[in-house]
Amino acid sequence: MRALGESIVTTQSAEIGKMNAWLAQWYPGRPTTVDYRPMMRDLSGLTGDALDETFLRDMIPHHMAAVMMSQRMLVQGRAEHREVADFARTVRDTQHGEIFQMNGYLADWFGGDWPMPYGAHPAGGGAPCTGGAPWGPGGMMGR
């Protein structure tokens, strides 16, 4: 769980840096600051299983939003720069895989079937995601 969290922080911090550099390069002189609003609730009061489960449940929709925005941009051909389209593909594919990984953790560690939103499930149609499903090499999400 720690490795997943650290990987997400490292990756998303680098992505933010990359996007800020593109803004400065492609749109010099335009303001790049925005009012920051946290995308997830404060988890600082949680520990142990409660922290892990809440983090996973919150991070899945966070990732889903990025996957959907990236896919929409690609399908609609809205990227003005090739680098942005390439970036969107990477975000879509990487975070899509992490969604399945996180759903697998929820199922394995906290039991039960964890419903996937429509279209996000490898079998399609919003079927439940279970830790024992043999999707990809080596079982759940290829692990």
Automatic annotation (TrEMBL):
Chain segments annotated as transmembrane: none
InterPro entries: DUF305_CopM-like, Ferritin-like
UniProt-listed Pfam families: DUF305
Location of the DUF305 domain: 1-105
Stated name of the protein: DUF305 domain-containing protein
Organism annotation: Pseudonocardia eucalypti
